[in-house]
């Protein structure tokens, strides 16, 4: 048993190998989405803890929660005595379903050619059979925002710097098809905001030879940056002109898919997820948003504390990366990554957590827990992987908390899901009890039983 804990097999059910036979039915079976959880402690996230209550799930959604509700005759009953129910967690940044093996280009479908590609939707490229999904959801993560990539060499981008990569999607972690998995097909338009670092980060700009690029002066980088900003503004201005001609049914008007994709952004119905890390880049992104009158969400803004007051005033949310990370440079504090979430919380800026990783998306709860050890309140850490994420991505009426009418994306545990000793007993997605076996647990069982 000690070996099991050290190997990370915290969420294995009994009969792991036998359960694999019914895997497909338990993951996608529509007839199994109605049941009754009896005598359990519920942690709604948006309300106080409820002890020894019952939860009725009907047709994949939360129907009732309370101490006095009675189980309908003939319904499946899940005994919850001594257990807890939490909302499923949300990873606010991955390429799950779009990238399988990064070194194998044919399995990577994250990017396309073209500097401005707003019409591309990550959702329709999602592979529901990805081996990553079972591994991640076994740790209580039921949803993710999957992004098209910008400027990558592996996903069809050819290594050129792409500015608008397409539309990120918020998806469930299980389903027969991408239609089944959809929560919000246009969670955000993704933009890699131009930088004077040349698009590959300041480290690449400081040490270009190590990154295979020629030495560039700051003047050259600044010129390229100004040109990229101008092209970005021109593209938005063209989209706004297209919108005007479309609404006026102008003579000779022709439909353009790129411009059609921009209309919800210009109408502020769809936010723009902007990757901007340095203070200058963040301030320029905010100025751009003001000029174009659009909503933005900042991804991995490392130096956001320098502009936190402005972010709060403008109600701009941020998505923080992993806390399991080294300091950015030798002059940074040793706890730079771990302390950031607590400081962001104190600043009043709304935030959620993302791993920005497929292989280690399963570690999302531990990244949140690490921040608790460095000053983030525990309840805020849980919100940052549940309701905060749902609110930021426009799906708080569907997922993110335990409330009547929402999808039954739940996990049943024997403790705090942010703690490593906790065992995940059940994971439900749209009310379906998910089989928790996956490639990693199968390999674990195989070699544990080696003669």
Strand count: 16
Oligomer: single chain
CATH class of the domain at 88-192 and 317-401: Alpha Beta
Number of helices: 15
Beta-strand proportion: 15-25%
Q: What are the SSEs and their pairings?
A:
Layout: H1 2-6, H2 16-19, H3 23-28, E1 35-42, E2 50-58, E3 61-66, E4 76-79, E5 84-87, E6 89-94, H4 132-137, E7 141-146, E8 164-172, H5 178-181, E9 182-192, H6 202-206, H7 218-247, H8 257-266, E10 272-275, H9 279-292, E11 296-299, H10 308-314, E12 318-320, H11 336-347, E13 351-353, H12 364-372, H13 378-384, H14 387-392, E14 410-413, E15 424-429, E16 432-433, H15 439-448
Parallel strand pairs: 1-4, 1-5, 6-7, 9-10, 10-11, 11-12, 12-13
Antiparallel strand pairs: 1-2, 2-3, 5-14, 7-8, 8-9, 14-15, 15-16
Q: What does this 3D model show about the protein?
A:
There is one protein chain. The protein has 451 residues and is an alpha/beta fold. The protein has a domain at 88-192 and 317-401: TIM Barrel (Alpha-Beta Barrel), CATH 3.20.20.140. Helix content is 30%, strand content 20%. The protein contains 15 helices and 16 strands. Strands 1, 2, 3, 4, 5, 14, 15 and 16 form an 8-stranded mixed beta sheet that branches. Helix 11 (336-347) packs across helix 12. The chain is globular and about 65 Å long. Mean pLDDT is 88; it is low at 1-9, 11-30, 151-159 and 199-211.
Q: Which short descriptors sum up this protein?
A:
alpha/beta; single chain; TIM Barrel; 8-stranded mixed sheet; 15 helices; 451 residues; disordered N terminus; 30% helix
């Amino acid at each position: 048993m000690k070996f099991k804990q050290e190997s990370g097999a915290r969420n294995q059910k009994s009969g792991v190998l036998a359960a694999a036979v019914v895997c497909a039915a338990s993951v996608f079976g529509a007839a199994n989405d109605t049941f009754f959880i009896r005598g359990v402690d519920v942690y709604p996230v948006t309300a106080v803890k409820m002890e020894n209550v019952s939860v009725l799930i009907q047709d994949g959604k939360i129907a009732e929660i309370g101490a006095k509700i009675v189980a309908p005759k003939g319904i499946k009953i899940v005994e919850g005595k001594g257990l807890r129910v939490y909302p499923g967690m949300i990873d606010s940044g991955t390429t799950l379903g779009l990238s399988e093996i990064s070194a194998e280009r044919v399995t990577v479908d994250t990017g396309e050619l073209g500097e401005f590609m707003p019409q591309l939707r990550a959702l329709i490229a999602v592979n529901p059979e990805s081996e990553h999904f079972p591994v991640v959801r076994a740790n209580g993560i039921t949803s993710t925002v999957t992004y098209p990539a910008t400027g990558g060499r592996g996903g069809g981008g050819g290594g050129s710097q792409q500015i608008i990569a397409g539309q990120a999607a918020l998806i469930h972690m299980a389903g027969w098809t991408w239609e089944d998995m959809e929560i919000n097909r246009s969670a955000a338009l993704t933009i890699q905001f131009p930088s004077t670092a040349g698009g590959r980060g300041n480290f690449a700009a400081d040490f270009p030879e190590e990154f295979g690029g020629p030495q560039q002066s700051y003047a050259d980088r600044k010129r390229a940056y100004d040109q990229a900003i101008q092209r970005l503004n021109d593209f938005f201005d063209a989209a706004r002109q297209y919108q005007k001609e479309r609404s006026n049914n102008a003579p000779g008007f022709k439909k353009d898919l790129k411009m059609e994709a921009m209309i919800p952004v210009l109408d502020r119905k769809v936010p723009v997820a902007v990757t901007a890390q340095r203070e200058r880049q963040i301030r320029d992104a905010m100025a751009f948003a003001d000029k174009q009158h659009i909503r933005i969400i900042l991804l991995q803004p490392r130096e956001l504390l320098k502009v936190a007051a402005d972010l709060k005033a403008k109600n701009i949310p941020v998505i923080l990366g992993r806390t399991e990370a080294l300091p950015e440079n030798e002059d940074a504090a040793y706890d730079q990554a771990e302390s950031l979430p607590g400081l962001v919380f104190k600043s009043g800026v709304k935030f959620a957590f993302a791993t920005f990783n497929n292989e280690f998306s399963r570690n999302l709860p531990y990244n949140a827990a690490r921040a608790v050890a460095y000053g983030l309140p525990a309840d805020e850490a849980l919100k940052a992987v549940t309701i905060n994420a749902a609110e930021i991505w426009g799906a708080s009426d569907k997922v993110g908390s335990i409330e009547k009418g929402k999808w039954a994306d739940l996990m049943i545990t024997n403790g705090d899901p942010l703690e490593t000793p906790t065992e995940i007993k059940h994971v439900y997605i749209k009310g379906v009890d998910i089989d928790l076996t996956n490639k990693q647990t199968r390999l674990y069982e195989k070699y544990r039983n080696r003669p």
